[in-house]
Protein backbone atom coordinates (compact mmCIF):
# COMPACT_ATOMS: atom_id res chain seq x y z
CA UNK A 1 0.00 0.00 0.00
CA UNK A 2 1.22 3.53 -0.75
CA UNK A 3 2.66 5.38 2.22
CA UNK A 4 0.25 8.29 1.84
CA UNK A 5 -2.84 6.08 1.88
CA UNK A 6 -4.41 5.46 5.30
CA UNK A 7 -4.40 1.79 6.34
CA UNK A 8 -7.81 0.14 6.18
CA UNK A 9 -8.64 -3.24 7.72
CA UNK A 10 -11.60 -4.96 6.13
CA UNK A 11 -14.12 -6.15 8.71
CA UNK A 12 -15.22 -9.78 9.17
CA UNK A 13 -13.28 -11.00 6.14
CA UNK A 14 -13.40 -14.70 7.08
CA UNK A 15 -17.13 -14.63 7.76
CA UNK A 16 -17.87 -12.90 4.44
CA UNK A 17 -15.77 -15.38 2.46
CA UNK A 18 -17.36 -18.36 4.22
CA UNK A 19 -20.88 -17.18 3.36
CA UNK A 20 -19.99 -16.04 -0.15
CA UNK A 21 -17.91 -19.13 -1.01
CA UNK A 22 -16.57 -17.59 -4.26
CA UNK A 23 -16.79 -19.77 -7.37
CA UNK A 24 -15.34 -19.45 -10.85
CA UNK A 25 -17.46 -17.75 -13.51
CA UNK A 26 -19.79 -16.16 -10.96
CA UNK A 27 -20.40 -12.40 -10.69
CA UNK A 28 -20.54 -10.47 -7.44
CA UNK A 29 -21.20 -6.84 -6.55
CA UNK A 30 -19.20 -5.07 -3.85
CA UNK A 31 -21.45 -2.06 -3.24
CA UNK A 32 -18.95 -0.21 -1.05
CA UNK A 33 -15.55 -0.86 -2.56
CA UNK A 34 -13.53 1.42 -0.29
CA UNK A 35 -9.91 0.24 -0.12
CA UNK A 36 -10.97 -2.93 -1.92
CA UNK A 37 -9.97 -5.39 0.80
CA UNK A 38 -13.01 -7.65 0.43
CA UNK A 39 -12.95 -7.43 -3.34
CA UNK A 40 -9.29 -8.38 -3.54
CA UNK A 41 -9.82 -11.47 -1.35
CA UNK A 42 -12.84 -12.50 -3.40
CA UNK A 43 -10.95 -12.17 -6.69
CA UNK A 44 -8.00 -14.10 -5.26
CA UNK A 45 -10.30 -16.91 -4.09
CA UNK A 46 -11.76 -17.87 -7.48
CA UNK A 47 -11.74 -16.98 -11.18
CA UNK A 48 -14.81 -14.78 -10.72
CA UNK A 49 -15.94 -11.30 -11.72
CA UNK A 50 -16.51 -8.47 -9.22
CA UNK A 51 -18.33 -5.20 -9.87
CA UNK A 52 -16.95 -2.68 -7.38
CA UNK A 53 -19.02 0.43 -6.68
CA UNK A 54 -17.99 3.52 -4.72
CA UNK A 55 -19.46 7.01 -4.71
CA UNK A 56 -16.24 8.63 -3.47
CA UNK A 57 -14.17 9.97 -6.42
CA UNK A 58 -10.93 9.73 -4.41
CA UNK A 59 -11.53 6.08 -3.55
CA UNK A 60 -12.54 5.32 -7.13
CA UNK A 61 -9.42 6.95 -8.55
CA UNK A 62 -7.19 5.07 -6.12
CA UNK A 63 -8.66 1.68 -7.00
CA UNK A 64 -8.37 2.26 -10.73
CA UNK A 65 -4.61 2.32 -10.35
CA UNK A 66 -4.24 -0.37 -7.70
CA UNK A 67 -6.32 -3.11 -9.31
CA UNK A 68 -5.24 -3.06 -12.95
CA UNK A 69 -3.73 -6.53 -12.53
CA UNK A 70 -7.21 -8.07 -12.28
CA UNK A 71 -8.04 -6.91 -15.79
CA UNK A 72 -11.64 -7.42 -16.91
CA UNK A 73 -12.39 -9.57 -13.84
CA UNK A 74 -12.93 -6.31 -11.94
CA UNK A 75 -15.34 -3.64 -13.16
CA UNK A 76 -15.20 -0.33 -11.29
CA UNK A 77 -18.18 2.01 -11.10
CA UNK A 78 -18.06 5.49 -9.57
CA UNK A 79 -21.53 6.15 -8.22
CA UNK A 80 -24.06 5.58 -5.46
CA UNK A 81 -24.89 1.96 -4.69
CA UNK A 82 -28.51 2.98 -4.18
CA UNK A 83 -28.64 3.21 -7.99
CA UNK A 84 -27.58 -0.42 -8.33
CA UNK A 85 -30.01 -1.40 -11.05
CA UNK A 86 -29.00 1.47 -13.32
CA UNK A 87 -25.28 0.81 -12.82
CA UNK A 88 -25.33 -2.83 -13.87
CA UNK A 89 -27.80 -2.18 -16.67
CA UNK A 90 -25.33 0.27 -18.23
CA UNK A 91 -22.60 -2.39 -18.34
CA UNK A 92 -24.96 -4.98 -19.82
CA UNK A 93 -25.45 -7.22 -16.78
CA UNK A 94 -28.90 -8.36 -15.68
CA UNK A 95 -28.25 -10.83 -12.87
CA UNK A 96 -25.48 -11.47 -10.32
CA UNK A 97 -24.70 -14.20 -7.81
CA UNK A 98 -24.12 -12.07 -4.72
CA UNK A 99 -24.46 -8.51 -3.46
CA UNK A 100 -22.19 -7.44 -0.62
CA UNK A 101 -22.64 -4.17 1.31
CA UNK A 102 -20.18 -3.01 3.98
CA UNK A 103 -21.68 0.14 5.47
CA UNK A 104 -18.62 1.16 7.47
CA UNK A 105 -16.96 4.47 6.66
CA UNK A 106 -13.61 3.83 5.00
CA UNK A 107 -10.40 4.62 6.87
CA UNK A 108 -9.43 6.59 3.77
CA UNK A 109 -12.24 8.97 4.71
CA UNK A 110 -11.94 8.90 8.50
CA UNK A 111 -8.15 9.23 8.52
CA UNK A 112 -7.88 11.91 5.84
CA UNK A 113 -8.20 15.08 7.95
CA UNK A 114 -9.22 17.43 5.14
CA UNK A 115 -12.35 15.31 4.47
CA UNK A 116 -13.78 16.52 7.80
CA UNK A 117 -15.28 13.17 8.81
CA UNK A 118 -13.58 12.86 12.16
CA UNK A 119 -13.49 14.94 15.34
CA UNK A 120 -9.98 13.57 15.95
CA UNK A 121 -8.50 16.05 13.47
CA UNK A 122 -8.93 19.81 13.24
CA UNK A 123 -10.24 20.26 9.72
CA UNK A 124 -12.93 22.09 7.73
CA UNK A 125 -16.44 20.70 8.28
CA UNK A 126 -17.23 18.64 5.21
CA UNK A 127 -18.15 14.90 5.40
CA UNK A 128 -19.24 14.68 1.75
CA UNK A 129 -18.79 11.24 0.22
CA UNK A 130 -19.20 12.54 -3.32
CA UNK A 131 -19.60 15.84 -5.19
CA UNK A 132 -22.68 16.90 -3.21
CA UNK A 133 -22.86 20.71 -3.20
CA UNK A 134 -24.02 20.78 0.43
CA UNK A 135 -21.55 20.01 3.22
CA UNK A 136 -21.89 19.69 7.00
CA UNK A 137 -20.61 23.27 7.19
CA UNK A 138 -23.79 24.38 5.38
CA UNK A 139 -26.04 22.32 7.65
CA UNK A 140 -24.43 23.60 10.85
CA UNK A 141 -24.40 27.24 9.79
CA UNK A 142 -27.68 27.55 7.87
CA UNK A 143 -30.26 25.12 9.25
CA UNK A 144 -32.87 26.17 11.81
CA UNK A 145 -32.42 25.07 15.42
CA UNK A 146 -35.37 22.65 15.30
CA UNK A 147 -34.10 20.99 12.12
CA UNK A 148 -30.60 20.64 13.56
CA UNK A 149 -31.97 19.08 16.72
CA UNK A 150 -34.11 16.64 14.74
CA UNK A 151 -31.19 15.57 12.53
CA UNK A 152 -28.90 15.01 15.51
CA UNK A 153 -31.61 13.13 17.42
CA UNK A 154 -33.08 11.02 14.61
CA UNK A 155 -29.92 10.19 12.66
CA UNK A 156 -27.42 10.24 15.52
CA UNK A 157 -29.71 8.97 18.29
CA UNK A 158 -28.22 11.69 20.51
CA UNK A 159 -30.37 12.38 23.59
CA UNK A 160 -28.82 15.82 24.15
CA UNK A 161 -29.72 16.94 20.63
CA UNK A 162 -31.85 19.94 21.73
CA UNK A 163 -29.11 21.36 23.92
CA UNK A 164 -26.45 20.78 21.25
CA UNK A 165 -28.58 22.48 18.57
CA UNK A 166 -29.29 25.44 20.85
CA UNK A 167 -25.58 25.90 21.59
CA UNK A 168 -24.71 25.65 17.90
CA UNK A 169 -27.16 28.47 17.16
CA UNK A 170 -25.75 30.62 19.99
CA UNK A 171 -22.18 30.09 18.80
CA UNK A 172 -22.88 30.87 15.15
CA UNK A 173 -24.41 34.22 16.18
CA UNK A 174 -20.87 35.17 17.18
CA UNK A 175 -19.07 33.56 14.22
CA UNK A 176 -19.58 30.77 11.71
CA UNK A 177 -18.61 27.29 12.89
CA UNK A 178 -15.96 26.25 10.41
CA UNK A 179 -13.98 23.29 11.77
CA UNK A 180 -14.47 19.86 13.30
CA UNK A 181 -12.79 20.98 16.52
CA UNK A 182 -15.09 23.99 16.85
CA UNK A 183 -18.16 21.78 16.48
CA UNK A 184 -16.74 19.10 18.77
CA UNK A 185 -16.05 21.66 21.50
CA UNK A 186 -19.65 22.86 21.35
CA UNK A 187 -20.87 19.28 21.68
CA UNK A 188 -18.55 18.54 24.62
CA UNK A 189 -19.74 21.66 26.47
CA UNK A 190 -23.33 20.61 25.79
CA UNK A 191 -22.67 17.19 27.32
CA UNK A 192 -20.76 18.18 30.44
CA UNK A 193 -19.27 15.28 32.38
CA UNK A 194 -16.74 12.51 32.00
CA UNK A 195 -16.93 9.93 29.26
CA UNK A 196 -15.37 6.51 28.90
CA UNK A 197 -15.64 4.46 25.71
CA UNK A 198 -17.73 6.75 23.49
CA UNK A 199 -16.53 10.28 22.71
CA UNK A 200 -19.24 12.94 23.29
CA UNK A 201 -19.11 13.97 19.61
CA UNK A 202 -19.53 10.49 18.16
CA UNK A 203 -23.31 10.40 17.80
CA UNK A 204 -23.67 13.96 16.51
CA UNK A 205 -20.94 13.55 13.88
CA UNK A 206 -22.40 10.20 12.86
CA UNK A 207 -25.89 11.62 12.56
CA UNK A 208 -24.78 14.58 10.47
CA UNK A 209 -22.82 12.31 8.13
CA UNK A 210 -25.69 9.85 7.67
CA UNK A 211 -28.16 12.66 6.99
CA UNK A 212 -25.87 14.58 4.62
CA UNK A 213 -25.06 11.56 2.47
CA UNK A 214 -28.61 10.12 2.60
CA UNK A 215 -27.12 6.82 3.74
CA UNK A 216 -30.32 5.20 4.99
CA UNK A 217 -32.19 5.76 1.72
CA UNK A 218 -29.16 4.46 -0.20
CA UNK A 219 -29.27 1.24 1.81
CA UNK A 220 -33.04 0.92 1.41
CA UNK A 221 -32.82 1.35 -2.37
CA UNK A 222 -30.05 -1.23 -2.68
CA UNK A 223 -31.96 -3.80 -0.62
CA UNK A 224 -34.99 -3.43 -2.86
CA UNK A 225 -32.85 -3.68 -6.01
CA UNK A 226 -31.36 -6.95 -4.78
CA UNK A 227 -34.71 -8.69 -5.37
CA UNK A 228 -34.54 -8.26 -9.12
CA UNK A 229 -30.76 -8.44 -9.56
CA UNK A 230 -29.89 -11.65 -7.71
CA UNK A 231 -30.00 -15.06 -9.36
CA UNK A 232 -31.92 -17.81 -7.60
CA UNK A 233 -29.72 -18.89 -4.70
CA UNK A 234 -27.84 -15.60 -4.88
CA UNK A 235 -26.63 -14.09 -1.62
CA UNK A 236 -27.31 -10.72 -0.06
CA UNK A 237 -24.71 -9.95 2.63
CA UNK A 238 -24.80 -6.74 4.67
CA UNK A 239 -22.45 -5.47 7.38
CA UNK A 240 -23.83 -2.51 9.32
CA UNK A 241 -22.26 -0.43 12.09
CA UNK A 242 -25.13 1.71 13.28
CA UNK A 243 -28.41 0.68 14.91
CA UNK A 244 -30.46 2.59 12.31
CA UNK A 245 -28.78 0.73 9.45
CA UNK A 246 -29.07 -2.64 11.16
CA UNK A 247 -32.75 -2.01 11.93
CA UNK A 248 -33.51 -1.46 8.24
CA UNK A 249 -31.62 -4.61 7.22
CA UNK A 250 -33.23 -6.67 9.99
CA UNK A 251 -36.76 -5.52 9.10
CA UNK A 252 -36.20 -5.94 5.36
CA UNK A 253 -35.25 -9.56 6.04
CA UNK A 254 -38.15 -9.99 8.49
CA UNK A 255 -40.80 -8.88 6.00
CA UNK A 256 -39.29 -10.46 2.88
CA UNK A 257 -37.92 -13.87 3.83
CA UNK A 258 -38.77 -17.29 5.28
CA UNK A 259 -36.65 -19.97 6.90
CA UNK A 260 -34.60 -22.35 4.77
CA UNK A 261 -36.59 -25.25 6.24
CA UNK A 262 -39.93 -23.80 5.11
CA UNK A 263 -38.52 -22.89 1.70
CA UNK A 264 -37.30 -26.44 1.13
CA UNK A 265 -40.86 -27.73 1.65
CA UNK A 266 -42.20 -25.89 -1.37
CA UNK A 267 -42.42 -22.69 -3.35
CA UNK A 268 -42.79 -19.32 -1.71
CA UNK A 269 -44.01 -15.90 -2.71
CA UNK A 270 -41.25 -14.26 -0.65
CA UNK A 271 -38.01 -13.25 -2.40
CA UNK A 272 -35.52 -14.49 0.24
CA UNK A 273 -34.85 -17.30 2.68
CA UNK A 274 -32.51 -17.32 5.67
CA UNK A 275 -30.42 -20.01 7.33
CA UNK A 276 -30.32 -18.15 10.62
CA UNK A 277 -31.96 -15.05 12.06
CA UNK A 278 -29.05 -14.52 14.41
CA UNK A 279 -26.79 -11.59 13.72
CA UNK A 280 -23.11 -12.41 13.26
CA UNK A 281 -20.62 -10.27 15.16
CA UNK A 282 -16.82 -9.97 15.02
CA UNK A 283 -14.73 -12.32 17.13
CA UNK A 284 -13.01 -11.02 20.24
CA UNK A 285 -9.65 -11.41 18.53
CA UNK A 286 -10.75 -9.28 15.57
CA UNK A 287 -12.08 -6.55 17.85
CA UNK A 288 -8.77 -6.56 19.72
CA UNK A 289 -6.84 -6.27 16.45
CA UNK A 290 -9.25 -3.77 14.86
CA UNK A 291 -11.32 -1.82 17.45
CA UNK A 292 -13.37 -0.20 14.66
CA UNK A 293 -14.98 -3.59 14.02
CA UNK A 294 -16.59 -3.76 17.48
CA UNK A 295 -20.00 -2.44 16.37
CA UNK A 296 -20.23 -4.51 13.15
CA UNK A 297 -23.37 -6.60 12.58
CA UNK A 298 -23.53 -9.05 9.66
CA UNK A 299 -26.81 -10.40 8.26
CA UNK A 300 -27.37 -12.43 5.09
CA UNK A 301 -30.12 -14.11 3.06
CA UNK A 302 -30.49 -16.12 -0.14
CA UNK A 303 -32.70 -15.36 -3.15
CA UNK A 304 -35.63 -17.72 -3.63
CA UNK A 305 -37.20 -18.68 -6.95
CA UNK A 306 -40.17 -16.34 -6.39
CA UNK A 307 -40.89 -13.99 -9.27
CA UNK A 308 -44.42 -12.70 -8.79
CA UNK A 309 -43.32 -10.82 -5.67
CA UNK A 310 -41.34 -8.44 -7.86
CA UNK A 311 -44.57 -7.24 -9.42
CA UNK A 312 -46.61 -7.00 -6.25
CA UNK A 313 -44.22 -6.44 -3.34
CA UNK A 314 -44.94 -3.28 -1.35
CA UNK A 315 -41.88 -1.80 0.36
CA UNK A 316 -41.99 0.98 2.92
CA UNK A 317 -38.97 2.91 4.15
CA UNK A 318 -40.56 3.90 7.46
CA UNK A 319 -41.91 0.38 8.10
CA UNK A 320 -38.39 -0.97 7.76
CA UNK A 321 -37.13 1.52 10.36
CA UNK A 322 -36.08 4.44 8.18
CA UNK A 323 -36.21 7.98 9.55
CA UNK A 324 -36.58 11.37 7.90
CA UNK A 325 -36.67 15.01 8.96
Q: How would you describe what is shown here?
A:
The protein is an alpha/beta fold and 325 residues long. It has 2 domains: 13-102 and 215-312, Rossmann fold; 111-212, Putative methyltransferase TM0872, insert domain (DNA polymerase, domain 1, Orthogonal Bundle), CATH 1.10.150. It is 42% helix and 14% strand. The chain contains 15 helices and 8 strands. The chain has helices at residues 13-20, 37-45, 57-66, 84-90, 107-110, 136-142, 145-156, 161-174, 180-190, 202-212, 215-229, 243-256, 260-264, 284-289, 309-312, and strands at 27-30, 49-54, 74-78, 96-102, 230-240, 257-259, 272-274, 297-303. It has an 8-stranded mixed sheet with strand order 3-2-1-4-5-8-7-6, sandwiched between helices. Mean pLDDT is 89; it is low at 1-6.
3D shape: globular
Number of domains: 2
- Order of the strands making up the biggest sheet: 3-2-1-4-5-8-7-6
Residue stretches low in confidence (pLDDT < 50, at least 5 long) are 1-6
- Describe the sheet with the most strands: 8 strands, mixed
CATH fold-level label of the largest domain: Rossmann fold
By secondary-structure content and strand pairing, the structural class works out as: alpha/beta
SSE succession: HEHEHEHEHHHHHHHEHEHEHEH
**Mean pLDDT across all residues, rounded?**
89
In angstroms, what separates the terminal alpha carbons? 41 Å
Helix percentage range? 40-55%
The quaternary organization reads as single chain
Amino acid sequence: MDNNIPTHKSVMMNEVLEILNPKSNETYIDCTLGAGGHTRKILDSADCHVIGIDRDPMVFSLNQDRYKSYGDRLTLINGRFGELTNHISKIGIKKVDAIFIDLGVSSMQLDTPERGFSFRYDAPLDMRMDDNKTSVFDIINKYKEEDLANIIYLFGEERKSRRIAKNIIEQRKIKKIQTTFELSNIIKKSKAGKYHKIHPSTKTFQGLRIYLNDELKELYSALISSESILNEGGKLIVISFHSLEDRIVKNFIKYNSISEKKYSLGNTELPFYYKTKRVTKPTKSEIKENPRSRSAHLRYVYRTSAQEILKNNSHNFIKYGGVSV
